[in-house]
Amino acid sequence: MHEHDRVAVTFTSAPRRHQRRAWLLLLGLCGAAWVGPLSHADWPEFRGPFGDGHVSAPGDTRVRGLPLEWSETKNVRWKTRIPHRGWSTPVVMEGKVWVTTATEEGHDFYVLGVDAATGEVRFHEHLFHSADPEPLGNGASMNCYATPSSVIEPGRVYVHFGSFGTAALDTADGRVLWKRDDLPCRHYRGPASSLVLFENLVILTMDGVDQQYHVALDKKTGAKVWRTDRSVAWNDEHVPGQMARDGDLRKAHSTPLIVNTGDKLQMLSAGAKAAYGYDPRTGRELWRVQYPDWSAAPRPPVRARSRVHRERVVEGRVARGEDRR
Protein backbone atom coordinates (compact mmCIF):
# COMPACT_ATOMS: atom_id res chain seq x y z
CA MET A 1 0.00 0.00 0.00
CA HIS A 2 1.03 3.60 -0.53
CA GLU A 3 0.76 6.62 1.71
CA HIS A 4 -2.07 8.00 -0.40
CA ASP A 5 -4.18 4.88 0.07
CA ARG A 6 -6.98 5.28 2.58
CA VAL A 7 -8.33 2.04 3.89
CA ALA A 8 -10.59 0.53 6.51
CA VAL A 9 -10.69 -3.13 7.48
CA THR A 10 -13.78 -4.94 8.67
CA PHE A 11 -14.37 -8.51 9.82
CA THR A 12 -17.91 -9.79 9.32
CA SER A 13 -19.38 -12.87 10.94
CA ALA A 14 -23.13 -13.18 11.02
CA PRO A 15 -24.98 -15.39 13.50
CA ARG A 16 -24.93 -19.10 12.69
CA ARG A 17 -28.42 -19.15 11.21
CA HIS A 18 -27.26 -16.74 8.49
CA GLN A 19 -23.79 -17.96 7.54
CA ARG A 20 -21.06 -20.36 8.57
CA ARG A 21 -17.99 -18.49 7.38
CA ALA A 22 -16.64 -15.05 8.04
CA TRP A 23 -15.41 -12.55 5.47
CA LEU A 24 -12.53 -10.15 5.89
CA LEU A 25 -13.00 -7.03 3.78
CA LEU A 26 -10.58 -4.25 2.95
CA LEU A 27 -12.65 -1.18 2.22
CA GLY A 28 -10.70 1.56 0.52
CA LEU A 29 -10.63 4.63 -1.65
CA CYS A 30 -7.44 5.60 -3.50
CA GLY A 31 -6.16 8.79 -4.98
CA ALA A 32 -6.15 11.51 -2.33
CA ALA A 33 -3.49 12.45 0.21
CA TRP A 34 -3.49 10.74 3.58
CA VAL A 35 -3.27 13.34 6.32
CA GLY A 36 -0.35 12.45 8.55
CA PRO A 37 2.11 9.53 8.49
CA LEU A 38 1.41 6.01 7.31
CA SER A 39 1.12 4.87 10.92
CA HIS A 40 -2.38 6.35 10.91
CA ALA A 41 -3.38 3.26 8.90
CA ASP A 42 -2.44 1.04 11.85
CA TRP A 43 -5.17 -0.36 14.07
CA PRO A 44 -3.22 -1.92 16.94
CA GLU A 45 -5.98 -3.04 19.30
CA PHE A 46 -9.72 -3.44 19.96
CA ARG A 47 -10.63 0.26 19.83
CA GLY A 48 -7.81 1.56 17.71
CA PRO A 49 -4.66 3.62 18.30
CA PHE A 50 -6.16 5.80 21.03
CA GLY A 51 -8.52 3.29 22.62
CA ASP A 52 -11.64 5.24 21.68
CA GLY A 53 -12.60 3.89 18.26
CA HIS A 54 -11.15 6.91 16.39
CA VAL A 55 -8.24 6.95 13.97
CA SER A 56 -7.42 10.53 15.08
CA ALA A 57 -6.11 11.64 18.44
CA PRO A 58 -8.56 13.44 20.78
CA GLY A 59 -8.85 17.04 19.62
CA ASP A 60 -7.46 16.34 16.14
CA THR A 61 -10.16 17.54 13.72
CA ARG A 62 -8.27 17.05 10.45
CA VAL A 63 -10.26 15.18 7.81
CA ARG A 64 -8.89 11.71 7.16
CA GLY A 65 -10.96 11.06 4.06
CA LEU A 66 -12.06 7.52 4.81
CA PRO A 67 -15.00 6.29 2.72
CA LEU A 68 -18.44 6.51 4.30
CA GLU A 69 -20.38 4.23 1.97
CA TRP A 70 -19.90 0.57 1.01
CA SER A 71 -21.68 -2.15 -0.89
CA GLU A 72 -20.64 -5.55 -2.24
CA THR A 73 -18.54 -3.67 -4.82
CA LYS A 74 -18.31 0.00 -3.89
CA ASN A 75 -15.08 0.98 -2.10
CA VAL A 76 -14.10 -2.68 -1.70
CA ARG A 77 -10.44 -3.38 -2.54
CA TRP A 78 -10.53 -7.10 -1.78
CA LYS A 79 -12.57 -9.71 0.04
CA THR A 80 -11.09 -12.83 1.65
CA ARG A 81 -12.98 -15.80 3.04
CA ILE A 82 -12.01 -16.61 6.63
CA PRO A 83 -12.86 -20.07 8.02
CA HIS A 84 -14.96 -20.72 11.12
CA ARG A 85 -16.27 -17.85 13.28
CA GLY A 86 -14.75 -14.78 14.89
CA TRP A 87 -16.13 -11.57 16.36
CA SER A 88 -12.78 -10.11 17.31
CA THR A 89 -11.57 -6.83 15.83
CA PRO A 90 -8.79 -7.23 13.23
CA VAL A 91 -5.49 -5.59 14.17
CA VAL A 92 -3.37 -3.96 11.47
CA MET A 93 0.33 -3.13 11.34
CA GLU A 94 3.35 -3.53 9.05
CA GLY A 95 1.20 -4.33 6.03
CA LYS A 96 -0.64 -7.24 7.62
CA VAL A 97 -4.11 -7.77 9.05
CA TRP A 98 -4.41 -10.31 11.89
CA VAL A 99 -7.70 -11.97 12.79
CA THR A 100 -8.72 -14.76 15.15
CA THR A 101 -11.33 -17.45 14.57
CA ALA A 102 -12.57 -20.60 16.27
CA THR A 103 -14.73 -23.53 15.28
CA GLU A 104 -18.40 -23.05 16.07
CA GLU A 105 -18.34 -25.67 18.81
CA GLY A 106 -15.19 -24.20 20.40
CA HIS A 107 -12.83 -27.14 19.86
CA ASP A 108 -10.11 -25.39 17.82
CA PHE A 109 -8.68 -21.87 17.81
CA TYR A 110 -6.79 -20.11 15.00
CA VAL A 111 -5.05 -16.89 14.02
CA LEU A 112 -4.64 -15.71 10.43
CA GLY A 113 -2.25 -13.11 9.04
CA VAL A 114 -3.52 -11.51 5.83
CA ASP A 115 -1.62 -9.30 3.39
CA ALA A 116 -3.21 -5.85 3.72
CA ALA A 117 -2.53 -4.95 0.09
CA THR A 118 -3.87 -8.08 -1.60
CA GLY A 119 -5.98 -10.03 0.89
CA GLU A 120 -3.77 -13.09 0.51
CA VAL A 121 -3.66 -15.28 3.62
CA ARG A 122 0.03 -15.36 4.61
CA PHE A 123 -0.24 -17.26 7.89
CA HIS A 124 -2.87 -19.63 9.22
CA GLU A 125 -1.87 -21.03 12.61
CA HIS A 126 -3.78 -23.55 14.72
CA LEU A 127 -3.03 -22.42 18.28
CA PHE A 128 -5.23 -24.28 20.77
CA HIS A 129 -7.53 -27.26 21.05
CA SER A 130 -10.24 -27.87 23.65
CA ALA A 131 -11.54 -31.42 23.93
CA ASP A 132 -14.62 -30.49 25.93
CA PRO A 133 -15.49 -26.77 25.67
CA GLU A 134 -18.48 -25.54 27.62
CA PRO A 135 -21.36 -24.84 25.18
CA LEU A 136 -22.36 -21.21 24.68
CA GLY A 137 -25.96 -22.13 25.45
CA ASN A 138 -28.36 -19.25 24.99
CA GLY A 139 -25.35 -16.98 24.45
CA ALA A 140 -24.67 -18.48 21.02
CA SER A 141 -26.70 -15.76 19.30
CA MET A 142 -24.63 -13.04 20.99
CA ASN A 143 -21.14 -14.49 21.20
CA CYS A 144 -18.68 -17.03 19.80
CA TYR A 145 -15.39 -18.55 20.95
CA ALA A 146 -13.17 -15.98 19.17
CA THR A 147 -14.56 -12.69 20.43
CA PRO A 148 -11.60 -11.16 22.36
CA SER A 149 -9.51 -8.87 20.14
CA SER A 150 -5.76 -9.11 19.71
CA VAL A 151 -3.10 -6.44 20.23
CA ILE A 152 -0.10 -5.80 17.99
CA GLU A 153 3.20 -3.93 18.12
CA PRO A 154 6.14 -3.91 15.69
CA GLY A 155 7.32 -7.49 15.34
CA ARG A 156 4.74 -9.18 17.57
CA VAL A 157 1.03 -9.90 17.71
CA TYR A 158 -0.69 -11.17 20.86
CA VAL A 159 -3.90 -13.19 20.52
CA HIS A 160 -6.37 -14.27 23.16
CA PHE A 161 -9.30 -16.68 23.50
CA GLY A 162 -10.00 -16.24 27.20
CA SER A 163 -9.19 -19.30 29.30
CA PHE A 164 -8.82 -21.39 26.12
CA GLY A 165 -5.44 -19.75 25.49
CA THR A 166 -3.26 -16.71 24.93
CA ALA A 167 -0.25 -16.59 22.59
CA ALA A 168 2.41 -14.31 21.10
CA LEU A 169 3.52 -14.67 17.47
CA ASP A 170 6.32 -13.20 15.38
CA THR A 171 4.63 -11.07 12.72
CA ALA A 172 7.43 -11.66 10.19
CA ASP A 173 7.09 -15.43 9.92
CA GLY A 174 4.05 -16.39 12.04
CA ARG A 175 6.14 -18.36 14.56
CA VAL A 176 4.56 -18.91 17.96
CA LEU A 177 6.85 -17.33 20.56
CA TRP A 178 4.95 -18.42 23.66
CA LYS A 179 1.57 -19.83 24.65
CA ARG A 180 -0.48 -20.00 27.84
CA ASP A 181 -3.57 -22.16 28.34
CA ASP A 182 -3.40 -22.48 32.13
CA LEU A 183 -5.23 -19.31 33.24
CA PRO A 184 -8.52 -20.49 34.73
CA CYS A 185 -11.90 -18.86 34.19
CA ARG A 186 -15.34 -20.29 33.51
CA HIS A 187 -16.66 -17.82 30.92
CA TYR A 188 -20.00 -19.67 30.80
CA ARG A 189 -21.27 -18.05 27.56
CA GLY A 190 -17.88 -17.57 25.98
CA PRO A 191 -15.00 -15.09 26.47
CA ALA A 192 -15.30 -11.45 25.38
CA SER A 193 -12.78 -9.10 27.06
CA SER A 194 -9.85 -8.07 24.85
CA LEU A 195 -6.14 -7.74 25.53
CA VAL A 196 -4.36 -4.56 26.64
CA LEU A 197 -0.69 -3.95 25.90
CA PHE A 198 1.22 -1.76 28.37
CA GLU A 199 4.98 -1.29 28.50
CA ASN A 200 6.40 -4.81 29.05
CA LEU A 201 3.00 -6.32 29.92
CA VAL A 202 0.07 -7.99 28.20
CA ILE A 203 -2.94 -7.55 30.50
CA LEU A 204 -5.85 -10.03 30.47
CA THR A 205 -9.33 -9.63 31.95
CA MET A 206 -11.03 -12.74 33.32
CA ASP A 207 -14.53 -11.93 34.61
CA GLY A 208 -16.21 -15.34 34.72
CA VAL A 209 -18.80 -16.95 36.94
CA ASP A 210 -16.21 -18.69 39.12
CA GLN A 211 -13.22 -16.31 39.10
CA GLN A 212 -12.91 -12.59 38.41
CA TYR A 213 -9.45 -11.08 38.04
CA HIS A 214 -6.87 -9.25 35.95
CA VAL A 215 -3.54 -10.89 35.20
CA ALA A 216 -0.48 -9.30 33.59
CA LEU A 217 1.97 -11.42 31.58
CA ASP A 218 5.50 -10.54 30.55
CA LYS A 219 5.10 -9.87 26.84
CA LYS A 220 8.50 -11.43 26.01
CA THR A 221 8.02 -14.73 27.85
CA GLY A 222 4.36 -15.07 28.82
CA ALA A 223 5.32 -15.41 32.50
CA LYS A 224 2.90 -14.01 35.08
CA VAL A 225 3.98 -10.65 36.54
CA TRP A 226 0.95 -9.88 38.71
CA ARG A 227 -2.62 -10.99 39.35
CA THR A 228 -5.33 -8.94 41.10
CA ASP A 229 -8.72 -10.36 42.01
CA ARG A 230 -11.86 -8.25 42.00
CA SER A 231 -12.40 -6.95 45.53
CA VAL A 232 -16.14 -6.25 45.57
CA ALA A 233 -18.32 -8.38 47.88
CA TRP A 234 -20.84 -10.29 45.80
CA ASN A 235 -23.49 -10.86 48.47
CA ASP A 236 -25.53 -12.88 45.99
CA GLU A 237 -25.63 -16.20 47.80
CA HIS A 238 -29.26 -15.71 48.79
CA VAL A 239 -30.47 -13.86 45.70
CA PRO A 240 -33.32 -15.87 44.12
CA GLY A 241 -33.37 -16.90 40.47
CA GLN A 242 -31.44 -19.03 38.03
CA MET A 243 -29.11 -16.23 36.93
CA ALA A 244 -27.79 -15.77 40.45
CA ARG A 245 -27.37 -19.53 40.88
CA ASP A 246 -25.49 -19.78 37.57
CA GLY A 247 -23.09 -16.96 38.47
CA ASP A 248 -24.33 -14.46 35.88
CA LEU A 249 -24.37 -11.67 38.47
CA ARG A 250 -20.57 -11.93 38.75
CA LYS A 251 -19.78 -11.87 35.03
CA ALA A 252 -18.55 -8.97 32.89
CA HIS A 253 -17.27 -8.52 29.33
CA SER A 254 -15.49 -5.15 29.36
CA THR A 255 -11.94 -4.32 28.24
CA PRO A 256 -9.90 -1.97 30.46
CA LEU A 257 -8.41 1.32 29.31
CA ILE A 258 -5.14 2.87 30.52
CA VAL A 259 -5.15 6.66 30.80
CA ASN A 260 -2.92 9.41 32.12
CA THR A 261 -4.74 11.31 34.87
CA GLY A 262 -2.11 14.03 35.10
CA ASP A 263 -0.25 12.69 38.11
CA LYS A 264 -0.24 8.96 37.37
CA LEU A 265 -1.26 6.26 34.93
CA GLN A 266 -4.40 4.36 35.81
CA MET A 267 -6.12 1.35 34.31
CA LEU A 268 -9.90 1.82 34.26
CA SER A 269 -11.86 -1.42 34.40
CA ALA A 270 -15.59 -2.13 34.58
CA GLY A 271 -16.59 -5.38 36.25
CA ALA A 272 -19.77 -6.76 37.74
CA LYS A 273 -21.04 -4.61 40.63
CA ALA A 274 -18.09 -2.18 40.50
CA ALA A 275 -15.74 -0.09 38.38
CA TYR A 276 -12.08 0.04 39.38
CA GLY A 277 -8.91 2.03 38.97
CA TYR A 278 -5.67 0.02 39.06
CA ASP A 279 -1.96 0.75 38.82
CA PRO A 280 -1.18 -1.05 35.52
CA ARG A 281 2.44 -1.69 36.51
CA THR A 282 1.65 -3.54 39.73
CA GLY A 283 -2.04 -4.40 39.59
CA ARG A 284 -2.67 -2.53 42.86
CA GLU A 285 -6.27 -1.38 43.24
CA LEU A 286 -6.40 2.40 43.60
CA TRP A 287 -10.12 2.98 43.93
CA ARG A 288 -13.48 1.28 43.44
CA VAL A 289 -16.94 2.60 42.64
CA GLN A 290 -19.80 0.20 43.39
CA TYR A 291 -23.09 -0.07 41.50
CA PRO A 292 -25.90 -2.64 41.40
CA ASP A 293 -25.42 -3.84 37.82
CA TRP A 294 -23.58 -6.78 36.27
CA SER A 295 -22.54 -8.00 32.80
CA ALA A 296 -20.67 -4.73 32.10
CA ALA A 297 -19.57 -4.68 28.47
CA PRO A 298 -18.68 -1.09 27.35
CA ARG A 299 -15.09 0.03 27.56
CA PRO A 300 -14.61 3.08 29.84
CA PRO A 301 -14.85 6.26 27.70
CA VAL A 302 -11.46 7.90 27.11
CA ARG A 303 -12.90 11.34 26.42
CA ALA A 304 -14.64 11.37 29.80
CA ARG A 305 -11.57 10.36 31.77
CA SER A 306 -11.27 13.62 33.72
CA ARG A 307 -14.74 13.16 35.17
CA VAL A 308 -14.13 9.49 35.88
CA HIS A 309 -10.94 10.17 37.82
CA ARG A 310 -11.54 13.47 39.53
CA GLU A 311 -15.11 13.03 40.68
CA ARG A 312 -15.12 9.25 41.10
CA VAL A 313 -18.87 9.15 41.64
CA VAL A 314 -21.18 6.87 39.64
CA GLU A 315 -24.46 6.47 41.52
CA GLY A 316 -22.82 4.67 44.37
CA ARG A 317 -20.20 4.50 47.04
CA VAL A 318 -16.55 5.20 46.38
CA ALA A 319 -13.70 3.14 47.76
CA ARG A 320 -10.16 4.49 47.30
CA GLY A 321 -7.30 2.11 48.19
CA GLU A 322 -6.22 2.51 51.79
CA ASP A 323 -8.17 5.72 52.19
CA ARG A 324 -11.61 4.30 51.35
CA ARG A 325 -14.50 6.57 52.13
Outline the structure in words.
By secondary structure, the chain is mainly β. It has helices at about 240-245, 305-310, and strands at about 5-10, 20-30, 75-80, 90-95, 95-100, 110-115, 120-130, 150-155, 155-160, 165-170, 175-180, 195-200, 200-205, 210-220, 225-230, 255-260, 265-270, 275-280, 285-290, 320. It has a 5-stranded antiparallel beta sheet, with no helix packed on it. A 4-stranded antiparallel beta sheet has the order 4-5-6-7, with no helix packed on it. The chain has a 4-stranded antiparallel beta sheet with strand order 8-9-10-11, with no helix packed on it. Strand 6 (about 110-115) and strand 7 form a beta hairpin. The longest helix is centred in the C-terminal third of the chain and has 7 residues, at about 305-310. The chain is globular. About 35% of the residues are buried. The model is unreliable at about 1-5, about 15-20, about 30-40 and about 305-325 (pLDDT under 50).
Mean pLDDT: 83
Structural class: mainly beta
Largest sheet: 5 strands, antiparallel
Record field, number of beta strands = 20
Taken in chain order, the helices and strands follow as: EEEEEEEEEEEEEEEHEEEEHE
N- and C-termini, Cα separation: 55 Å
Helix fraction by DSSP (H/I, runs of at least 4): under 10%
Oligomer: single chain
Number of helices: 2
Q: Looking at the structure, what is the overall shape?
A: globular
Strand content: 25-35%
Return Rg in Å.
Answer: 20 Å
Poorly predicted segments: 1-7, 14-20, 28-38, 304-325
The strands making up the biggest β-sheet line up spatially as: 16-17-18-19-20
